[in-house]
Amino acid sequence: MAEKQAHLNGAYYGPSIPSATRNYHRPGRGSGCGCGCCLLKLLFNIIVTAVVVIGLAVLIFWLIFRPNKIKFHVTDVSLTEFNLTTNNTLNYNLAVNMTVRNPNKKIGIYYDRIEARAYYEDQRFATQTLTPFYQGHKNTSFLNPVFSGQQFVSLGADETSVFNEERTSGIYSIDVKLYLRIRFKVSRVKTGRFTPKISCDLKVTLSSANGSLAGVPETTRCGWDF
User: Measured between alpha carbons, how far is 178 from 182 in angstroms, rounded to an integer?
Assistant: First the structure.
């Protein structure tokens, strides 16, 4: 027995022993979500949640209060002077009567600023600032801007030709616009400020007395533009 062991010389002749596997882990290269990805997912979830909450709030508000658009109408207009001189100075005297109807039962409106502007061929020739006011529920208010004076207007050849045609017919295309700064009041809560624009496209007959809207019904509805 001793002789056999001497021949082995301490060597091992059995099956090979596999070497130990080394696991190298490099930070940031593993599977899963890194910090940047997690932040983006969190931000996305916050945005989606905010959109859903705001949408539900708007829906609930609409179901409770059923808001209706404020209605602006021009009911009467007077144009007693509208003359363009050779140096493109416009002499004008224009008075407009308007109604503002709030059809809402539970919403009031603060008109913090009302600026009325008059345009001819996209050229503004007059501006008037009207008195601010509060309009209650289901209420009709009245606005009476008056434009009188003279103003240089930059009319090209085409616009001057249009003016000469309208002077012959006695009917002028004049735009009156209201630039508003308003707030809404719901119960005791007041909203932030909104700045809509109201546009009234008029066909006005030149006369020495109070005129009416030519070629259209006596009352003309104005459009909203946010």
Answer: 12
